[in-house]
Amino acid sequence: MLPAVATALLALAPLVYLVVRALEDGVGTAAGLLWRERTAWLLVRSLLLATAVTAACLVLGVALAWLTTRTRLPGRRAWVVVAALPLAVPTYVAAFAWLSFLPGLAGSRGVGAFVVLTTCCYPYVLLPVAAALRRADPAGEEVARSLGLTAWQAFRRVTLPQLRPALAAGGLLVALYVLSDFGAVSIMRFDAFTRVIYNSYSSAFDRTPAAVLGLLLVAVTLVLVWLEGRSRGRAGYSRVGQGGPRTAALVPLGRTAVPALALVGGVTAVSLGVPAAALVYWTARGASTSLDAGELLPAALTSLGVAALGALVTTLLAVPVGVLAARRGGRLPRLLERASYLGHALPGIVVALAVVFLSLRVVPALYQELPVLVLAYVVLFLPLAVGAVHASAAQSPPALEEVARSAGSSPAAVLRRVTLPLAAPGIGAGAVLVFLTVMKELPATLVLRPLGYDTLATRLWTETGVADYAAAAPYAALLVLLSAVPAWVLTTRTGERS
Amino acid sequence: MRARPLSRVLTTALVTALLATTAAGCGDDEDEGLVVYTGRNENLIEPLFERFTEETGIEVTARYATSSALAAQLLEEGSSTPADVFLSQDAGALGALQDAGALVPLAPEELDRVPAQYRSSEGAWVGVTGRARVLVYDSAGVDAATLPTGIDGLLAPEYRGRIGYAPSNASWQAFVTALRVTRGEDGARSWLEGFKANAPQAFDNNVLILDAVDRGELDLGLINHYYVYEKAAATEGGLDALNAEIHRFAPGDAGNLVNVTGVGVLQGKADERTARLVDFLLGEEAQTYFAEVNKEYPLIAGVQPDVPGLPALADLQGPDVDLSQLDTLEQTLALLEEVGLT
């Protein structure tokens, strides 16, 4: 319980900063900033974009998860991995890639932002849903079929309800990501809420409006997290029986194999193919620029290092929160879990400035050192790990822990020998999600990186800053390739055992 | 049995992290050097810092981010900032720090090297390079002879939906401020309303506007001059090979505004070393470098850069505006918001 409280307090720390800054010019100014037509209008636009992207990701995520886990899709095992790889593509790379082929997408009433965010984010739904499908006991569906339901009815009335926690968790991550994203919306010229926040720094050099709007974003996050809690439902999702669940029989696709392949192939071709083609195109066009391996290698190592550290620390802090939330209903565990989501919808620059403010007051010696940078990653990406741990712990039956307790094990021993090993795949998945996201992170890294640190993302930013896409391409390519390895580990490890 | 994969993943992660961060840890030895926060691009400014170190023996460690993020960071850091010098991409960020009392006044002999219109009236910062606002046009699709002699001509119905601009760009906002200063609030509002009624296309930055014009997808764009010369330098055949071309308005028109990038020293950090860096940035070598590499205007008399097609700074004839009056960005943003051009 205590570690979970500590983690939640850490996640809530930026709130202190936001409140201090928001009220700096008095409550009246803050209220005035909120009470503007433009603020409301932009929030509505951002929420509409988030809704559209989340809906599209839910549909794509479920379709792809079902096809790759439950059907005889040709090349099924390869598709499992390939379909999750877009997670490794940063939205700013994808956005630039799309624009280099279809410049008209920019400013196209949000179509560009929608396409980029959907193709980059659907794995957030695909991964938990696929994992849930593999773990779910097929017995329920078989009973439903034997009682006369069609395959579709059985899916809708038996399988889909079982997927509710996974759908809710994945959908929430997508929605929060869309709200906090700046790369895709700014490159695609979609006037979103985050753009106002950035503009208030870049044009007014004023931190008060940004803090007020940040608080508004926190309020929206609270509503979304509450909605997620509601849609998750109160039902239990673990199973108790002899041995593990059987592997579900794979559905033969027959004549529908062709459209199914077209769907899976099309989605991945669009999500991965467009960025890949753009990288090749940029590299080829700027053949004169020589690749500076002396810059590339250290940046790659630093990226891997900070991402691994970020993933490690974030996951360690997330475990108590996730396990507690899954094991004990109760108000406090739920509150702690929800608190961990607050940083995720805030733009990186806002969290970064909050960390500047707090670290200079609490641990000035560590300012602009690695630990403080890692701390910012924790605040930003905690929910990725908490969600994965929670989902995984919720699916292992509490009865096993009760048995261990009654057999005389101490609570610590139960945690170490029963709970954690059972939740291990989920914990690993959470760590990989955080790793991938840290690899791509830019705004907080720019502000908080120790002097002299260069990551692949910051080098990419430097090269695109002088419009040198040819020089930027190797950094982008390496960023995607290095992220593809853990993405591959993630998909193969979460359950595909036969 | 199932616990092993997790611990293996974690161990691997830890080992990789430690190895990699030790490898990258070469940034820790900046004890005696200067710390510079800069919004300028690393690729373009790093060679100049290296030359400075060669010449003076003073190490420079830089933090690179956007000028606005760095200004916010410096304001947040206050007196605990590790930064000695702020080399900003625009005068606005320096103005914000000056207003917060975060900058030390510079020595008069440094300030006097730059014409009065290109430095802070309070002496808190000095301009390093200049950049001019220009109109670029698609030379294949637009007849240069028909282009207007001033920004008012852009409000004509024939340009409806054909002009690109970057609403979040600091230079665009500085231009609007100059418009307010020269024409008064009502005059500026009336131009902006006319501009908005002409349905201009909003872009995220100047590079995207120039690229669109050069590809012939956009007819006209309001950008800074150096983007064109940089693109020319990166293109085979140079300036002549570009489809996008520069159109200059008549002398004194607000559309010709010349703004600066500048440098300031943080409070409590003024010493021999910071003075030498400011001196170096205003020296002939650095000024020539900025002109030839970044295609920006030198602000020191007597520096003649070798940039094909770049007119002399004195010939630009921008509007008669005191740059230190351009620190009323708040009012500019309020006006832009009121008009609905954000």
* Gap between N and C termini of chain A: 37 Å
CATH class annotation of chain A: Mainly Alpha
Number of helices of chain A: 23
Helices of chain B, by number, come to: 11
Protein model, in words:
The complex is a heterodimer of chains A (498) and B (342). Chain A has 498 residues and is mostly helical. Chain A has one domain (2-234, 256-493): MetI-like fold. In chain A, 76% of the residues lie in helices and 0% in strands. Chain A is built from 23 helices and no strands. Chain A has helices at residues 2-22, 26-34, 37-70, 76-84, 91-101, 111-121, 123-135, 139-146, 151-162, 164-180, 183-187, 193-202, 207-232, 257-285, 293-327, 331-339, 348-362, 370-395, 398-406, 411-440, 443-448, 456-465, 469-493. In chain A, helix 1 (2-22) runs antiparallel to helix 13. Chain A is globular, with a radius of gyration of 23 Å. The model of chain A has no long low-confidence stretch (mean pLDDT 83). In chain B, helix 6 (170-197) runs parallel beside helix 11 (329-339). Chain B has two domains: 30-130 and 260-308, Periplasmic binding protein-like II (D-Maltodextrin-Binding Protein, domain 2, 3-Layer(aba) Sandwich), CATH 3.40.190.10; 131-257 and 327-339, 3-Layer(aba) Sandwich (D-Maltodextrin-Binding Protein, domain 2). In chain B, strands 1, 2, 3, 4, 5, 6, 7, 8, 9, 10 and 11 form an eleven-stranded mixed beta sheet that branches. The model of chain B is unreliable at 25-30 (pLDDT under 50). Helices cover 41% and strands 16% of the residues of chain B. Chain B has eleven helices and eleven strands. The radius of gyration of chain B is 22 Å and the shape is globular. With 342 residues, chain B is of the alpha/beta class. The longest helix of chain B has 28 residues, at 170-197. In chain B, strand 1, helix 2 and strand 2 (60-64) form a beta-alpha-beta unit. The interface between A and B is large, with 67 and 67 residues.
